[in-house]
Design goal:
With 256 residues, this protein is of the alpha/beta class. The protein has ten helices and eight strands. Helix content is 39%, strand content 14%. It has a six-stranded mixed β-sheet with strand order 3-2-1-4-6-5. A two-stranded antiparallel sheet has the order 7-8. The longest helix is centred in the middle third of the chain and has 21 residues. The structure holds iron/sulfur cluster (SF4).
């Protein structure tokens, strides 16, 4: 197995009493990251936080996180849901400008870290995320450890760390198995997990999401028709979600 990135800087931060915030989505990478963190970081220096996407995420994800961690789970939410955000903008987020990630995940977690640090009277915070280089070319170019200068102020130093950055998919599943755990049940068919209908989801995952969550699927398909903007393109042309994945939806009102 690739040696996970516990470089000297991380050891120094542990010794300096930094608080490591595990951003836990409920997905396999978060689950492996948490298991890895618990092996090397004192328990009282770990805080677990989940940015809930509410109706947009797989039902049961929060229960799954709670069943696989030994810390209290902090659940944070943005002041709007994914579907409200799309409805207000009249368009879906794109892969290049993922407003969904920044507004619904990153923003609420950074806010939580600021508040938690304030309660502690300041200190060092390490925002830990389960992103991996193998996921995409864009992700492979990220730095697995860096200062977050935007969030750093006089009394609060904030770092960002990707503990499982160098792990392969097989190694992630192995790490979960080694912890005596299983990944969320949807991985029996899904390649990735987070929003049931992710703007970057594979057809396989979208189809599985629709089969398991037909009412939510109907709402996504209806919203596409309402705003006249599609989540996906095919050969440079917009394609409705139901046509994209080939699962028809009944009772969809199509504006004349
Ligand atoms: S899972 Fe996909 S749709 Fe959901 S917030 Fe992340 S990028 Fe956006």
């Amino acid at each position: 197995m690739t040696t996970p990135g516990f470089q000297p800087e991380i050891i120094q931060l542990i010794d300096a009493g930094a608080i490591f915030y595990a951003s836990h989505s409920g997905g396999k990478d978060s689950q492996a990251m948490y298991a890895l963190m618990c092996q090397h970081i004192p328990s009282d220096q770990i805080v677990v936080v989940h940015a809930s996407l509410g109706e947009a995420e797989w039902p049961g994800v929060i229960d799954h996180i709670n069943a696989t961690i030994s810390h209290q789970l902090n659940v944070v939410e943005a002041g709007k849901t994914f579907l409200e955000m799309v409805e207000r903008r009249g368009m879906w987020p794109g892969a290049q400008h993922r407003q969904c990630t920044s507004d619904l995940k990153r923003g609420p977690i950074e806010k939580f870290i600021r508040q938690d640090m304030a309660k502690r009277g300041g200190g060092i915070a390490v925002n830990c995320m389960g992103l991996r280089a193998a996921e995409s070319a864009t992700r492979s170019r990220r730095s697995p450890f860096k200062a977050n200068r935007r969030q750093t102020v006089k009394k609060r130093a904030v770092w960002e760390w990707l503990p499982v950055f160098n792990l392969s998919t097989a190694e992630v599943f192995q790490m979960i198995a080694d912890a005596g755990q299983k990944p969320f049940w949807a991985y029996e068919q899904n390649e990735r997990l987070s929003c049931v209908f992710c703007i970057m989801g594979s057809r396989n995952d979208l189809r599985h999401g629709a089969e398991q969550n037909p009412e939510l699927y109907r709402r996504y398909v209806q919203l596409e028709r309402n705003i006249g903007h599609t989540m996906f393109m095919k050969s440079g042309q917009p394609i409705w979600l139901d046509e994209h994945i080939g699962i028809p939806v009944k009772n969809i009102e199509v504006a004349a």
